[in-house]
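Example record

One chain of 347 residues, shown exactly as stored in the release files.
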Amino acid sequence: MIEVLSVASEVYPLIKTGGLADVAGALPLAISEFGVTMRTLVPGYPAILSVLSDRRVVGEIEDLFGAPARLLAGRHAGLDLIVIEAEHLYSRPGNPYVGPDGWDWPDNWRRFAALSWVAAELGNGLVAGYRPQLIHCHDWQAGLAPAYVKFGPSVGVKTVMTIHNIAFKGFFGPEVFSQLRLPPHAFSVSGVEFHGGVSYLKSGMECADFVTTVSPNYAREICTPEFGMGLEGLLNGRSDTVVGILNGIDTVAWDPATDKSLAQPFSANNIQKRRLNKLAVIDQFEPRWCRRAAVLRDQPSDGSKGHGPVASGDGWVSGAWGAAGGSRVRRGSARAWVPPSPHAPSR
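Predicted structure tokens for this chain:
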């Protein structure tokens, strides 16, 4: 039996902003039949603490980046969870990364450094009777964990860094480094340093034993200057330890025949019913878009990942935000660049 600790800032069905949560929620159950036991370490957001069952305190931390914290073990929806109960870091409702004003929480560097630090400490035996053999880190929010393992006490635990979206690097100024509980020599090209600051994603990519991405195609793309976001050199330098594993889906959660969130369920046997869902989407956005709107076929955005545009009857197009910080949209034959989200660099 292999003991794995999954480290994620979100996990379905507890809290979700994107595909990372889907993977973090589905993977533990999917691999259990192959002799792998996976527990998931998550921040103690209100949405998680409110539904955690069979909870028990398994650890206490005197100072978790500014105040005491507890580790709670519990379960929800078949998932074995270790939850960091730290009010000063995670007791904030709504989106886990941004405040009510739509901007990143200014202490995100501390909130997710704490998540990674706890992960490494669990690998070092923080909780009696539990020590994972592998720490699986998802995206920049867990990116410091491999650095804490690499530059901390040698415990033999291995680390894997999974890149869901390379555009979000978790980049912060150099002033945060002195508060990260890392030795001075970790602020280097072979550590957490990136263009004079600290990048949590780059840290994980540099320090992990292995790097995975969400598909073989994405693994190839991010090794190029066009899609590598400045990290293609690092990836090419360790290409023998970078692999793309195609994301699967939860065939129960995503079954359109039973999905209650759809206006009209459908299956392969009556696929023509999908059109009713399209019309329902148009109706929902009618105050903003013309009733004559027609959904175009999905087209890739200019970002490394994104969704196709949606065109309304008057020719305007609403493009999905590209993961690279914007996407091209079209009005008639013209093309324009949508500026990036103000919090794209770190969210």
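Notes: Residues 289-301, 306-347 have pLDDT under 50 and may be disordered.
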